[in-house]
């Protein structure tokens, strides 16, 4: 518990990482093609007042998606960057959520990634 508190006060970034202790922060592998995943993310973000898709672009055979999320009370903005890759009929997602200001995020960036992962896992 102390480790989590210290990280929340000193860390303002979170990434999908298959070696993370929390399996919710492992890279999602979605059983859909990239276009379906993009459509699902667009639909999901459109129905959330604090989320916005800023940009979607293709580069080097990957799809890059830049989202922003405003925190509830103080309305800080977090940048969430996802990279979608084809993986044998599925879509593997790498991602990072980063606070624009401050030294600690109280775990919000990890929660941003977990929220996206959950939304894609529970779709349909």
Question: What's the quick description here?
Answer:
By secondary structure, the protein is an alpha+beta fold. It contains 3 helices and 6 strands; from the N terminus they run αββαββββα.
Explain the overall architecture.
- It is a single chain.
- The protein has about 120 residues and is an alpha+beta fold.
- Helix content is about 30%, strand content about 35%.
- Strands 1, 2, 3, 4, 5 and 6 form a six-stranded antiparallel beta sheet that branches.
- It is globular, with a radius of gyration of 14 Å.
- The model has no long low-confidence stretch (mean pLDDT about 90).
Number of strands: 6
Extract low-pLDDT stretches.
Answer: none
Our estimate of the beta-strand percent is 35-45%
Instruction: Specify the overall morphology.
Output: globular
Q: Characterize the largest beta sheet: strand count, sense, and whether it forms a barrel.
A: 6 strands, antiparallel
Quaternary form: single chain
Mean pLDDT: 89
- Taken in chain order, the helices and strands follow as HEEHEEEEH
- Counted by DSSP, the helix tally is 3
Give the radius of gyration.
14 Å
User: What is the terminal separation in angstroms?
Assistant: 35 Å
């Amino acid at each position: 518990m102390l480790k989590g508190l210290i990280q929340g006060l000193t860390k303002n970034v979170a990434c999908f990482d298959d070696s993370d202790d929390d399996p919710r922060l492992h890279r999602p592998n979605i059983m859909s093609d990239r276009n379906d995943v993009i459509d699902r993310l667009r639909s999901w973000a459109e129905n959330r007042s604090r989320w916005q898709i800023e940009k979607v672009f293709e580069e080097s055979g990957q799809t890059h998606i830049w989202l922003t999320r405003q925190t509830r009370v103080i309305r800080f903005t977090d940048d969430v960057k996802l990279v979608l890759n084809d993986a044998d009929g599925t879509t593997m997602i790498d991602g990072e959520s980063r606070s624009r200001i401050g030294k600690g995020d109280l775990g919000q960036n990890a929660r941003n990634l977990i929220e996206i992962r959950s939304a894609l896992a529970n779709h349909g």
